[in-house]
Backbone:
């Protein structure tokens, strides 16, 4: 089956620094990847849709300048949390689906637990 | 606005019990409904349902979709402690590629 790899699995950073999270599709090309955020005991909230070769589409309420997304190749999308603050501490998960056929499941990365101190 | 509502939000059962998890949805241009199991990290795929009335089965887990009444159920028979997890329902619409998730049902199976 398809595999999506996310790195790092956990990171602790100081307030004010930036953190980059990588998401790779290992055995298929993903023109579109998705970034989700999950708070404890809550569901996955879509943050943005990452489009290869073009700008990401952000969900309402998600700051574009704070959560920078780059999708430079068909197998890699990155999420950079800029000037991180403690309230950015969360579980971030990326996801990718094959573009064709239309009805395929989404595969998830392992997730990144971000703690900002 | 698309909605995915799961019930119950949490459930505690004894090993060997059978459980039924519910997912109702209101989605424009529905394409498919998916069930995932999430333990400590990323969700793992269970089922994708596209057609009404066709049961999908995998071991002790099964699921079915009712597109007329806009809901799906996930059944787990002879539950085991390893079934303890959050079960997420998500819907895919024709308007985009992203999954819209419900809040999940947290299942705890006690010995």
Residues:
């Amino acid at each position: 089956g398809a595999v999506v790899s996310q790195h790092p699995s956990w990171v602790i950073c100081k307030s004010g620094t930036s953190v980059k999270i990588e998401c790779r599709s290992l055995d298929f090309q993903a023109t579109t990847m998705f970034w989700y955020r999950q708070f404890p005991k809550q569901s996955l909230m879509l943050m943005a849709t990452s489009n290869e070769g073009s700008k990401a589409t952000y969900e309402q309420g998600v700051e574009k300048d704070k959560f920078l997304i780059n999708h430079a190749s068909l197998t890699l999308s990155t999420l950079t949390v800029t000037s991180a603050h403690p309230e950015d501490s969360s579980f971030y998960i990326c996801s990718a689906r094959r573009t064709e056929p239309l009805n395929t499941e989404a595969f998830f990365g392992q997730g990144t637990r971000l703690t900002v101190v | 606005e698309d909605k995915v509502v799961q019930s119950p939000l949490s459930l505690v059962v004894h090993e060997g019990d059978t459980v039924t998890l519910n997912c109702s949805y209101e989605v424009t241009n529905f394409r498919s409904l998916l069930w995932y199991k999430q333990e400590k990290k990323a969700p793992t795929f269970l089922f994708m349902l596209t057609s009404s009335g066709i049961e999908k089965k995998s071991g002790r887990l099964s699921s079915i979709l009712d597109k007329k009444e806009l809901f799906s159920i996930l059944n787990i028979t002879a539950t085991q402690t390893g079934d303890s997890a959050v079960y997420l329902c998500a819907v895919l619409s024709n308007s985009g590629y992203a999954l819209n998730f419900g809040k999940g049902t947290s299942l705890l199976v006690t010995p």
User: Anything to note?
Assistant: Chain A has a mean pLDDT of 89. The interface with chain B takes residues 6, 9, 32, 34, 41-46, 49, 93, 95, 97, 99, 102-111 of chain A (CB under 8 Å). The first strand of chain A starts at residue 4 and ends at 7.
